[in-house]
Amino acid sequence: MQKLHSLKTACLLLIFVTSFSFAKESKEGHSESGDIKQEIKDYIDHHLLDSHDFSLTSYTTDTGEHKYVGFPLPVILWDDGLKVFSSSKLHHGESVAEVNGNYYKSFHGKIYKTDASGEITLDDHHHPTNIKPLDFSITKNVFTIFLVALLMFFMFSRMAKKYKKGALPKGIGRFLEPIILYIRDDIAIPNIGLKKYKRYMPYLLTVFFFIWIINLLGLTPLGVNVTNNIAVTLALALITYFLTTFTANKNYWGHIFWMPGVPWPMKIILAPIELLGTIIKPFSLMIRLYANITAGHIVLMSIIGLMFIFKNWIGSSLSFGLAFALSLLELLVAALQAYIFTMLSALYFGAAVEEHHDH
User: Are residue 307 and residue 200 in the same domain, yes or no?
Assistant: First the structure.
């Protein structure tokens, strides 16, 4: 009981110290910029963007110089030929990179071609008018995708080797096996069928663990936000769409273009609607994953930003507690979104391979 009381006291002390620190920084930042709310908004916008370097944190030295802790990534551009250089030349958008007589500068996460001074011209809508080369760079999100892919390959290859030595799982297999069995027994088989579920299991397992691990990394201080990039969720949805389309049987297409038991005039009217439905389904997968993850990050960062606005230990402590509770909820959302994407994908696969006698 005494240990529990001491733990509560320590937690309250930690919240008080943290809130006081945040309030102090908020006051200093407010005196410098005069608009703390705009600073918080800009920080959230920056947090959601991809970047050409992997920055873990940053700090300001006594001399006022802004320092970044992290490492650069390769920038790969196509601008009248291939241009490859390190993102350290851009210095987080503060410097102009010179490559073979061409000059490039990063502006809001995008790389534009400029002159030696790095001038970015804007139109009436504040959009850059500079030439933007084709960007094939290894950004922070791309680097994270490669990292998660290697991690998954390492986990499952080790798990497979353990099973060759014995039927009982060992090591990380003890944690992964119940999840794999759940995806097989409660997602794949009920939705696809016992006969054809095996051909889709590799994809279902891959997409579940990929989304889950990526979402968990997004909750760490690393600032990795892969699934709130709509290009990533679009790619995942397209894979589901193509697998559904190219593995579908004639019964699936028959129900779309010439529905049985429906008068032929209605078939002509319903066929375009049914065909549009095949496109709307992956579109909903893309938007659902993107919107939920992005909204979670925005709400969480906004609540943390309230600590800098309240500037008192009561408001900052409440914001800190709410942010902590929301972070726990985001852990559930990370797994839930992976489950929903996998479940709906299996449902679409099941509809594509369903035989006529299965009705």
Answer: yes
